[in-house]
Protein 1
Amino acid sequence: MFESFKMLFRARPQEPWRSWPAFPEGQRVYAIGDIHGRADLLEAMLDKIAKDEAIRPAAETTIVFLGDLIDRGPDSARVVDLVIELARTCKVRAILGNHEEMLLASLESDQTLRRFLEHGGKATILSYFADQEAYNRLSISELRQDLRAIIPQDHLAFFRGLEDVVCMGQYVFVHAGIRPGVKLCEQNPHDLRWIREGFLDCDDDLGLIVVHGHTISQDVELRSNRAGVDTGAYLHGKLSALALEGCGRWFLEVTG
């Protein structure tokens, strides 16, 4: 019986993230998953981060948004306002998600605008529209023509200034993931914003720890080579953040 117990103990799997490298000395990061228009959850998360910061030693803190701030949820415009406002007082890095990519492309193409609307973009546009009845009367072409005037210029500038990747030490922050076996500088932007197959099922050493959103999981998903931080804000009402400092890693979450 004792031998069986020893065999069970040896077979217990180790938590794969324990082998992650240390985060750069003196720095702390909070990586926030896909928000998708849930301004209420973002406000609660920012309050939780502020309280978490207050109980920890001083560090150079960066808040990284992993993309998909907009679409599906009820208040995308407010989410963008909050991030722009936060960047005035905190160090913020924000990544271009596939939904922001579709919004920008919608300004140039009726076909892309139709696709954007089908993938949750209607909620984003309505968050900027004061009159839903006026929205309902517009054709696709008319709507596309009006978008540049409806969306504030500082919001358009914000969307156009979003980053593809953020690198900090041996960690890379992207929206969806990376293509294994391809150098970071040679990654296809489409993969950075859309990839699932070939990345999520890869357990190989990627050279960096990839922190990403895009694919919903019940909780923050930690693997030996990546962390998935999209816990379904619009679908399950749960927004999560992964925090990293030195060899420490912890999670913050808000629900509603």
Protein 2
Amino acid sequence: MDTAMLIMELEKRLPRKRFEHVVRVTETAKELGVRFGVPAEKAEQAALFHDIAKFMEPSDMRRMIEENGEDSKLLSFHHELWHAAAGRIIAEQEFGVKDTDILNAIRYHTTGRAGMSVLEKVVYIADLIEPGRSFPGIEELRESAQLQIDGAMKACIAHSVLYLVERRVAVFPDSIECYNEHVQRD
């Protein structure tokens, strides 16, 4: 994959602020990847693709999800979640990505899931803790990512689920299963 070409494509598809977020997530994912044994190239590729569909029309994402056998439950949740599935499809169909681990890291970067690979966790965590993010508890999440991948994932998924629950927003089942898996490890 030609990274320079992908970056140019992202600049066309995304508003400047979102593009800058993607660049920060990519740098964070590469750092975490090195720390936790994921090849930097895989972390870079998955992170670059993670928001490629973020600003697509919901009707286009819906069509992609329906036509490509994605989990139809997704469509009963807020369309904010749909870009991850659409991004996986774009990476595979438009850019020829075949690595299942990279495709899954793109697909599950918003919800998490039980049984995540280290790469999937790296992208999920990097998306939440990249240097441009600022919210109560961010420093604790960043510190957890310095120590151990499963501890960081547990802290991040707990933060995400609690955020949604506090706002009385429906939580996608994959997120609940991811949360349960990580808290039951103790």
